[in-house]
Design a protein that fits this description.
- With 396 residues, the chain is an alpha/beta fold.
- The protein folds into two domains: 215 residues, Nitrogenase molybdenum iron protein domain (Rossmann fold, 3-Layer(aba) Sandwich), CATH 3.40.50.1980; 145 residues, Nitrogenase molybdenum iron protein domain (Rossmann fold), CATH 3.40.50.1980.
- The protein contains 14 helices and 17 strands.
- The longest helix has 21 residues.
- The radius of gyration is 24 Å and the shape is elongated.
């Protein structure tokens, strides 16, 4: 027991010493290449020429300004500014003190923002993620699950309780967090004290679903794959352009799930899922469910209130992200027998999302197409859909 205590004490001491040594240089990654670059004399920040602004069609929560010699300044709304420094280049002199420096190659990333993994996968960047905020059993993305199982990616603790010793010892050169990190600000502060820059990605604040997908371009900039990211994004948008230009179907849609306490969780009228329903040609049944001032995109209502608002909806879509997928109408009615009175249940227009949906923002265009299909075809084939499947009658 005494030996184990001593080992633990040494481990803690190592982390604390690293924290003290690096606390005065929170913008510099604790790696040899980063220190070498930081020690070099870079160009004057005030004289660098702007070459272009990264073109964005839907995203509003970030911008990227590209400078000569490959420097790129990322500005994330209400989150921070980050200068991407190309490999072998030095940090510009006179850089604003609030700008966090990121040194390429960014190849030892700790990813705690799970929705970003799919965007990394799209541009062949999963190999740049060394440390994961989810263990293998928490991923629906095969590449992430496989990497954790074969040891090429390591589980480094949840966003709220990261393994600081592992993150530091593995030379992590960037931590990507979701906005959930704002609930545990001490974690962000400690990572920065260890010399690990923290980028808080705010794609969840995008009101447009295609804006969420467009964060692909930001990760393309980080990994030096900007052109590929732009090409892939344009392809996804092109695939739904015809749908976006069509008139509405007039059909009403409810998107929901039933909580363990019996209340019904629905989307606010300003949420991106609501926007997808509208883009697909549907009308969201709770279109007047206004924002109540908090940052949540959903609200819980009583079953009685849901009954009043959604009983006559043409289509029901059950959100499987929280309590798992449903496959039969009986499974749905087991959650609330009141649903048997709903128009969509009687007509058989009840659908369920796949559990992988919210880990795959690159699939949002395909989900819009799925929604459009079930709204416009009398007998849509579930086998041809990507993220929706129809609930069958009875126990089959």
């Amino acid at each position: 027991m005494r030996k184990r205590i001593c080992i633990l004490a040494v481990s803690v001491l190592v982390v604390l010493m690293a924290s003290l040594l690096l606390s005065g240089c929170s913008h510099t990654v604790g790696t040899a290449s980063a220190r070498k670059q930081a020690a070099s004399t870079g160009p004057d920040w005030g004289t660098l020429t702007v070459e272009k602004e990264l073109p964005l069609q839907y995203a509003t929560q970030f911008t990227v300004t590209e400078y000569e010699d490959g420097y790129a300044l990322i500005d994330i709304t209400d989150s921070g500014r980050y200068l991407v420094v190309p490999e072998g280049m030095a940090v510009p002199s006179g850089l604003d003190k609030d700008i966090v420096v990121l040194y390429q190659p960014l190849d030892r990333i700790y990813l705690a923002a799970t929705s970003a993994m799919d965007l990394f996968r799209a541009i062949g960047g999963v190999g740049s993620i060394l440390l994961s905020g989810e263990d293998a059993d928490g991923w629906y993305i095969d590449e992430a699950k496989q990497a954790l199982e074969d040891g090429s990616m390591l589980f480094a603790g949840k966003y709220s309780a990261p393994d600081y010793e592992l993150i530091y010892s593995e030379g992590c050169n960037l931590a990507i967090e979701s906005t959930m990190i704002y609930h545990t600000p001490e974690v962000k502060e400690q990572l920065e004290k260890l010399g690990v820059p923290v980028l808080v990605e705010c794609s969840s604040y995008e009101g447009d679903p295609l804006g969420r997908m467009e964060w692909l371009k930001l990760y393309g900039v980080l990994l030096g794959k900007e052109e590929l990211a732009e090409e892939l994004f344009d392809q996804e948008v092109a695939a739904v352009n015809d749908i976006l230009g069509q008139t509405g179907t007039g059909k009403t849609v409810a998107f929901f799930y039933i909580t363990t306490t019996g209340t019904v969780n629905v989307r606010k009228s300003s949420d991106y899922v609501t926007k997808m329903i509208e883009m697909a040609g549907g009308e969201y049944v709770f279109s007047n469910l206004e924002d109540d001032g908090n940052a949540l995109s959903t609200v819980n209502m009583s079953m009685e209130a849901f009954y009043d608002g959604a009983k006559n909806a043409d289509v029901l879509i059950y959100n499987s992200a929280i309590d798992g997928e449903l496959h039969t109408v009986d499974e749905l009615l087991a959650k609330s027998p009141l649903l048997a009175d709903f128009k969509a249940v009687k007509s058989g227009d009840v659908w369920c999302t796949g559990k992988n949906l919210f880990q795959e923002p690159m699939g949002l265009g395909k989900l819009i197409a799925d929604m459009h299909t079930i709204l416009t075809e009398d007998e849509p084939d579930s086998g041809e859909l990507n993220y929706l499947h129809r609930l069958t009658n009875g126990g089959t």
